[in-house]
Design a protein that fits this description.
The protein has 16 helices and 14 strands. By secondary structure, it is of the alpha/beta class. The protein folds into 3 domains: 2-17 and 232-360, Nitrogenase molybdenum iron protein domain (Rossmann fold, 3-Layer(aba) Sandwich), CATH 3.40.50; 24-228 and 379-385, Nitrogenase molybdenum iron protein domain (Rossmann fold), CATH 3.40.50; 392-436, Single alpha-helices involved in coiled-coils or other helix-helix interfaces (Up-down Bundle). A 6-stranded parallel β-sheet has the order 1-11-10-9-12-13. A 5-stranded parallel β-sheet has the order 6-5-4-7-8, sandwiched between helices. The protein is globular, with a radius of gyration of 26 Å.
Length: 437
């Protein structure tokens, strides 16, 4: 990790660049070709692209239901119990997000309502590759289930045997998913967006992935809704001398091991602490393996030394990290001033991996600086809200002059007429009624 001491703000733009910013044009062109191939070729293209990118020749795009049903017996029982505990915590946190309907009278005779409606059909992308992320299955399938989505289809790359990990299959089974497609990468996003002979297009696509998946989601977002821009993993740690350097080093490695395009940023207030963490990194990384991924990520990662806490906060908000760990004295003093982060971990005993797996919060979070304006996945992500208004005769008589005056001010005379014509008829009918009396 390269160290930068008290970098001038003119350097911050370069220091907050992501690794995936390096070759965007090449990635965009390749993804465009994949999207077009799936759009034109359907199932046949999915099989061909899976063989090309994953070196697996599929005989079926779908995981057999028997494997899903039998997955409980195929995984380590201690891991099964861990998954079950994580499921419980994630479910509790997301059930607490259920939105109460609104039903209010805004003025006499004017009733306004808002109700949450589940998205009918959702597609979930679960990264595979060197580390099949069965935890992401829980993070996406549970809120989809709680929201009440009618159809949930899961996509994940096949392993070398032409199947999927039993851990992903088990996580799917306990969340009620029984349709799993063995396709990954940009081609999976294309299948969800366009549909094929055997796969219905979805209403919204969820799930993180590498830069190819991220670009694919961006390109198809004009025809189908996506959750957020979630690309390669990233972590920032803000630390002072109250931290444990070993904890900080372990946290940095926990994200670096995701892949060579991951990025970790350490922000500290002294050279001494920076050296302690870097020394610890050298020792601890020997314990975790995944040498290629870790070394590749650390080459693109940085240590930033900023002696003033205000500058630490400002730099964090400029970078807008996916994950932010705050290991300092009085951590909430910093946390309360953070305006751009996907998820924040407070204090020395809150590792980012807790959020990745089992604390209950969702780990599908905005990356690449999108945390400045986007949230991570929540229960609301799987729902949309419909507003209603019910106006009585008395209500429209009272409200019509307001509508008419505003419409007239915008020169939209049809809008004015739509309100006025109702009032005229109401008044006319009232006059007729009075004459008859």
């Amino acid at each position: 990790m390269k160290v930068f001491y008290q970098p001038d703000k003119s350097q911050w733009s370069d220091l907050t660049k992501r690794p995936s910013d390096e070759h965007p044009e090449r990635v965009y062109e390749e993804v465009k070709r994949v999207l077009e191939e799936v759009k034109e070729g359907g199932d046949r293209a999915l099989i061909s692209l899976t063989e090309k990118f994953d070196n697996v020749k599929l005989t079926s795009l779908f995981v057999g239901k028997e494997l899903i049903e039998q997955s409980e017996k195929l995984i380590d029982q201690d891991l099964k119990r861990a998954i079950d505990i994580a499921k419980s915590n994630i479910e509790k946190f997301h059930r607490a997000q259920l939105f109460n309907d609104i039903d209010i009278i805004t003025s006499p005779g004017v009733r306004c309502l808002m109700r949450s409606v589940p998205i009918e059909r959702v597609g979930l992308y679960i990264p595979g590759g060197t580390a099949p992320l069965f935890s992401t299955t829980l993070m996406l399938a549970l809120p989809a289930m709680i929201a009440g989505c009618k159809e949930i289809i899961l996509f994940t790359p096949p392993n070398r045997d032409g199947g999927i990990s039993p851990e992903i299959a088990y996580s799917a089974s306990i969340t009620g998913i029984d349709t799993i497609v063995m396709v990954g990468g940009a081609q999976a996003i294309a299948a969800m967006a366009y549909g094929t002979e055997s796969i219905k297009r979805v209403d919204k696509i969820f799930g993180p992935g590498n830069q190819y998946v991220t670009v694919a989601k961006q390109l198809i977002s004009n025809i189908v809704s996506i959750d957020l821009v979630a690309g390669p993993s990233e972590l920032m740690v803000i630390a002072d001398n109250s931290c444990d350097p070993d904890f900080v080093a372990a946290d940095l490695l926990s994200q670096a091991e995701h892949g060579v395009d991951s990025q970790v940023i350490l922000v500290v207030d002294s050279v001494e602490l920076a050296n302690k963490v870097v020394d610890s990194l050298e020792i601890i990384q020997r314990e975790i393996g995944r040498e290629r991924e870790v070394k590749g990520a650390l080459l693109k990662s940085r240590v930033i030394i900023l002696e003033k806490r205000e500058l630490m906060i400002e730099f964090a908000n400029t970078y807008a990290p996916e994950h932010l760990i705050i290991s300092v004295n009085n951590p909430w003093e910093i946390a309360d001033k953070i305006r751009a982060a996907g998820s924040i971990f407070i204090g020395n005993f809150s590792p980012e991996s807790a959020g990745d797996y089992a604390s209950g919060t969702n780990h599908t979070l905005p990356t690449g600086g999108w945390a400045r304006s986007s949230s991570g996945v929540t229960l609301d992500s799987f729902m949309h809200r419909i507003s209603y208004q019910e106006i009585s005769r008395e209500g429209i008589v009272e409200l019509a002059p307001v509508i008419a005056k505003m419409a007239e001010g915008e020169s939209l005379h049809g809008h004015k007429l739509a309100a006025d014509i109702r009032v005229r008829k109401i008044l006319c009918n009232n006059q007729k009624s009075n004459k008859n009396e």
